[in-house]
Amino acid sequence: MISLLNSKVFQDFPNLKIVVAHGGGAIPYQMGRFRSWSVRKGETVTFDEQLRKLYFDTCNYSTEAIDLLLKVAGTDNVLFGTEKPGTGSARDPLTDRDYDDMKPVIEGIAWLTDAQRKNIFECNCRRLYSRAFRTDEEC
Fold first, then answer.
1. Are 76 and 125 in contact (CB under 8 A)?
2. What confidence tier does 117 reach under pLDDT thresholds 50, 70, 90?
3. What is the torsional sign of CA 139, 126, 122, 21?
4. Which residue of 5, 18, 77, 120 has the fewest C-beta atoms within 10 A of its own C-beta?
5. Class of the 9-128 domain?
């Protein structure tokens, strides 16, 4: 993803939309390194601004990881996603829910507003795929 952001792909294809699976992998956790690297390269656009060109799913089975993803990527760039059934289809003994049952995890993040939750669960996807979704419901 870092190579992609530092390429000319988004200049050549300004309408390109990419959804990065599994909450962006290492991206949210390595932001300090990526920011520093961008500054050292003399980039005129910050790494955080570059990151806003990408979208991320919530297919990450950790409340802490989802919380960090939302803070780093922004709630407008995160789309609800789960891979049920998938590798997370095992019971968490602490919650008695499957690890990949992400809806209650997102609903439980206290600092999110109702509007931000609606964006994550529905509206971000509608905006991203606006040509495929034509409805009268507002987002």
1. no
2. very high
3. negative
4. 18
5. alpha beta
For residue 7, what are its two tokens? 């390429």
What residues act catalytically?
83
- Looking at the chain, list the stretches that DSSP marks H as alpha helix, in order from N- to C-terminal side: 2-5, 9-12, 31-40, 47-51, 63-73, 102-107, 114-118, 124-128
pLDDT band at residue 6, thresholds of 50, 70 and 90? confident
Nearest-CA neighbor of 107 among 129, 80, 85, 138? Answer: 80
Q: Of 43, 54, 40, 41, which Cα lies nearest the Cα of 10? A: 54
Dihedral over Cα of 112, 67, 101, 133: its sign: positive
